[in-house]
Amino acid sequence: MRKERVEKKLSENKQKRFYIIITEDAYTSEKSFSGLRFALTALVQEHIVNVFLLGAAVTLAIKGQDPKEGPNMQTWLKNINEEGGKIIACGICCEKRGITTDILLDFVTIGSMGDLVEIATNSDIQLMF
Is 50 helix (H, G, I), strand (E, B) or coil? Predict the structure, then answer.
């Protein structure tokens, strides 16, 4: 059902393709949380969303996080994934922090600058948080 609505919006030229780049971890500022809220809101409004986690933001996708206060980024990423959003973590950024695929959320893929360029060039709107 969602796919049919998405295709209809694309054909009516009302649907936008957002590319959201997040650069900060969850506990430095509210930027990462704002980016994830925007991504989920855009998906609920039936837009297409790709999220690229760059720099310290790759830590958002580590499994098993359970903060005692504040938003749970794992839950937000899961909701974005369930709504059809694609989440990519920068491979070099992960490597620099000792983050391997086995500790990332299962639906997060490792990407490269080539992926960043490809998705950005195929997006209507790019935002950075």
Answer: strand
At 14-66, the pLDDT tens digits run 899 999 999 999 877 889 999 999 999 999 999 999 999 999 999 999 999 88
Q: Is the pTM of this model over 0.70?
A: yes
Residue 111 domain boundaries:
17-128
Pairing of strands 48-53, 86-90: parallel
Residue 56, CA distances (Å) to 13, 38, 39, 61, 100 in order? 35, 19, 18, 10, 14
Distance of CA 71 to the CA centre of its chain: 15
CATH number at residue 119: 3.40.1260.10
At residue 90, the 3 state secondary structure works out as strand
Domain annotation covers residue 8: no
> Are the C-beta atoms of 93 and 59 separated by less than 8 Å?
no
Rounded distance, CA 2 to CA 8, Å? 10
Domain tally for the chain? 1
Could you report the per-residue pLDDT of 74-88, keeping only the tens digit for each?
Answer: 999 999 999 999 999
Residue 78, in any domain of the structure = yes
